[in-house]
Amino acid sequence: MNPPIFTEKAIKITKVDSNFEREPLIRPFGFKGSAMTNVWQTMAYLKSESGLHKIGLGTQNVLWSDAKVFSEHSENGGNALMYAISERALQIVNHQSFTNPVDLLDEILPEVFEYGKKITHNSQLRKTFALNALVALDNAAWLVYAAENGITQFDKMVPTAYQKGLSARHNKVVSIPALGYGTPIETIKKMADEGYFIMKIKIGAPGTQAKMLEKDKAFIKAIHESIGHYETPHTKDGKIPYYFDANGRYDQQETMLQFMDYADKIGALDQIAVIEEPFGERNQESVSNIVARGNNLRVAADESAHTDEDALTRIQQGYNCIAVKAIAKTLSMTMKIAQIAYDHQVPCFCADLTVNPILVDWNKTVAARLPAFPDLDMGLQETNGWQNYRNWQKMKGYHPAKKEAWVTTKNGVYPTEKVFFEKSGGIFMPSAHYENMFTT
Known about the structure:
- The chain is an alpha/beta fold.
- The protein is built from 17 helices and 14 strands.
- A 7-stranded parallel sheet has the order 6-7-8-9-10-11-12.
- α8 (209-227) links the parallel β7 and β8 (242-245).
């Protein structure tokens, strides 16, 4: 692999712009005790002094990034606040110079975060809210940086400091669907029949903690009775592994342990591979008791691992897996988090944000390079947009590499072979749809 071209060349931004589209969902997508009905797709336009321009994409998710903001505003109102943060960030970088996107993010994040606290009237705003708002700008900055330095492949763009964390080259990436509250069991069974062999299951149902627990028990029981007996060649025991995402809904470890005891009672415990974000950042206790209950169980930090520093804290608290999201916390921050995890021998996988098809491949460029997940000789990536967007096929048409084999799941995996790496998942290719939304 050739060393990255990471020069000290100053790149001056001379023009910025932004836009967004609202994409409706097929049905309300429920998690964190609430649900969203549409998703804003944002665009950040950057033009450099040399005259070249690039458009970075983002997908907003207010409910995931800060449930308090979601609950205190209308759905579109919460999205408007996040979009206002994106716009503020663009105005900060306009007519400014940067040498690389990682430094740029480090420079603007504190100011952007404080602005977010101000406009949301929330002094406890979660940093993930600001990072989510910065994804489109960060992606645009990477594309401008690459173009200015003659970089045409992702591997040559990764800074030396973060290369080890993204050093794998998987020829397959597991495609993980997400199952929200109330997903019909028939739908879940159909996915298993189609070859999906890792299911991300949203737990933490609406209601009190007691009601939540009973609903979650009923959900896992129905799922296990439906697909628990399925066999797959991709795991050592031949069984389908379960991946539960609580999105911080469990208030106490005792409640989570009751859920696990029930899973053990019905014979599902040994198939639980991952429990993601059981408590959220408010709970700073060690999770070693939960890890010890399972068989090679991974307790993953997701939204509580806002930054590389937060990820290190979670690792020290016993979290033995990190869900990274280049499409939610910026590629720049994800590189840092992946490297911290690599340094501590903690596996990572890519989680989704119900993003659009192009961003699926931004995430995939990371998933295909993360060290192999334990017991699986491939990368892992959640992708649920195809399950949730009403206009998914139309959105897929915006993808400049839509006809490439790696874009479509086959038997539960994405084929990420030589051409995928040569073309960097298509992330450097311009999309006519998004280009047409701006006047250059």
